[in-house]
Queue: 3 jobs
Job 1
Amino acid sequence: MVVEEDRELEELRRRRLLELQRHLLEQERAAEERMRIEVQKQAVLRRILTPAARQRLANLKLVKPEFAEQVELQLIQAAQAGRLPIPLTDEQLKRILLHLQSGRRDIRIRRL
């Protein structure tokens, strides 16, 4: 009886270990895929943006990472569709950013 319980416990441990290993492998694959996509995205941005514009986008990413991510994707899509002058200068990027931010409402809460 005790031997059978030990075997069942060992089987449960083995299954849990396999499950954890599988989960870890999936996480590693997902991380590698994200890295691969990021490298490709940065390569495209290097082609379509001037160094000053890339620096502005990098600075924006530090402050507003989600917004910067959306801008990067929109710039890539616009460049691929031929709707963007290449290379995009810093001044042109500023105008695009101002246009995109004007459509967003910034909600601020003030304490009284």
Note: Residues 2-102 form a domain with the Helicase, Ruva Protein; domain 3 fold (CATH 1.10.8.140).
Job 2
Amino acid sequence: MGQLSTWISAVIAFVCGGLLGILATVAHRATAVIGSATVPIGLVLGLVAVFALVVGCRLLWEHRLPALGAGLGVVIAEIVIAENGQGLFLADDALTMAWLVAPAVLAAVIVVWPHRRPARAD
């Protein structure tokens, strides 16, 4: 895969990450009552979606740049909403802090994780 196609893939992954970041930031406060416990289902599903996007980019392309683009897209979307939302979507509580920190940590771990391909039999 050429260098140009890697950069194009990274830009597309960045846009997808940004869209996911917007959607998940709006929905991260959704909860569901299961038995007597209140589960932050929006946070859980948002993190699963971020994980799936970044891991998918990491596995699909040989380079790390598309996975980095996807992770940055999510994080930058969060930052833009945090700066411009004025408390509309992001409250000052532990759930919001978890949403602001966890995708960045998750994406960073996935991007730096070693990529091992099986040895080819020539």
Note: The helical segments are 3-27, 41-60, 65-84, 94-112.
Job 3
Amino acid sequence: MKTRSAKSSIVAALGFVGVVVAVAPAPAHHSGAMFEPEKVITLTGTVKEFEFTNPHSWLYVSVRDAAGNETLWGFEAEGPSALMRAGIKQRSLQPGDVVTVRTRPLRDGRPGGAWVTVTKEDGTVLNPHPNAPVPISTPAN
């Protein structure tokens, strides 16, 4: 009897360890470490696509620099349920819309960042974190 109980305990312990190992990477997925924590820049451009998807939504905006060169920027936001709670719907942003995006840029310099706010031409501000303080913009480098 003790042998069977010991085997059951070992199986239960291994199962518990397996669950812990499988769940451990989940918090890392939600890290914001790839974004500049203290820097917010402002960009204006034209919406190319708004992916209202899980686990994260993406807004793609074509931005022209002073020389006229066009760069496609990607801005990451929360999934649809969080955006809907903030009043942002799947049809809130359409291809061709001109928007001004405030973003925490990627640390590695690629054209992307975390969506802070988006202001549409009509003045509507789309803020995925309406209860959080909005950071002040910093000059772009």
Note: The chain has two domains: 1-30, 41-126.
